[in-house]
Batch of 3 targets.
Target 1
Amino acid sequence: MKRQALSLISLLSLLLVAGLAIAQSNHVRANVPFSFTVGSETLPAGTYDIRAMSSDPKVLLVQAQGGSSIIVGSNAAESLKGAEKTKLVFNRYRDQYFLTEIWVQGATRGRQLPKTSREKELAKELAQDLTHQRVEIVASLY
């Protein structure tokens, strides 16, 4: 009985480690048709690759194809059901977009970027205004 329990625990641990390795290897690519803010930087419209850093999966590299890149911290985001599609989620306040979440199709765990001081300021200013929207951009894995 102890041997079966130990085998089961070993198998579950192996599956957990494999799942984490797969989650960390996801590289997301999206064509963003508007300029947007990530951390303290505003990036122009274009095609972007986003991936977790191998040394710390909470740290994301957002890189424009053929252009600049930014490194930003993120937090875990969870959902009860898996994401229907691979996507980037933005908060929009008037004409400003802020990258807020990254999801991979089928995953119940994604990444969430903390709100910047500018985003918090806009959210507070527009609390009574209905100009806040969540905007999703379909992405792909590469």
Target 2
Amino acid sequence: MVNGPRVPWLVLRTAIVVPGHHTQRRSVALVREAERVATERRVDLVVFTGWARDGGVTEAEQMCSEWEGPEVELLVEPTASVTAENAARTLPLLVERGIRRAIVVCAPLHLYRARYFFTRLYGAYGVATEFRVAQMPASVGAVLWEVAAATACRRQLRHARSELTQVVG
């Protein structure tokens, strides 16, 4: 028997995934929460995801440029326009890097939909999910957005699963 420190047989590689928010101020709050997570936990990768409504700088690029956290690989996924796409389009990036755990950072009102999509899509490919909520005030517009968006969840999940089978298999 060899005495000495125990070496875990499997070290789960971990990523933080940050879906964009429609406002710059709220997106920055998400980045700050992701930075807190990255200082508390060993993280291998941070992925920012979100498109540009007006064709300019994407939410993902804006968030990445705000990063002041620990030195870690940063990725930008600039095409996702809804939460289902955030999950579906970041998953291949995680899988190809051997990531087995994802910490999704989102707004408080966004937690329900984020959990709905990320746990179902990531879980099907062996990526465990956790969620961290960035503290920010809720606006009437945000509440209305979440209520309206909830009506499309099943359809968006079907579309995201279809997209994933074409990309990941």
Target 3
Amino acid sequence: MIELLVNGIRPEPHERPFWDGARDHRLLLQRCAACGQLQHYPRSVCRHCLSDALDFVESAGNGVVYSFTVIHRAPLQELRPFAPYTLALVDLDEGVRFTSDVLGDPADVRVGLPVAVDFLDVTDEVTLPVFRPVLDPPRRQP
């Protein structure tokens, strides 16, 4: 059912590396070559300095839940079988805030919960980054 929702995803050229990375089970963040800032969602220019010199770097995919809501009544018929589900703002260790689902029991989700990226293969072409709670997430050394 969720396949119906993602069939409409037609990435713009500046978004393509993100979606290709997700399909390969890699979480990619956009980085500005001019100022070095990371950003997500992918844009055609840097939101910090407006440079168009952008590339992508791989994220470790670790973070914490900043905020969340539990969807009990899905807004689309195709999502109703998945309710209740958790939509969260995740603060990645790299300093980027990411919006995604947190898998598992919604009752277990809380602000500050450590999470790690996982990937949901929806179709052969579309893979969605999602997050799973972790008890002791691996942290990259600075």
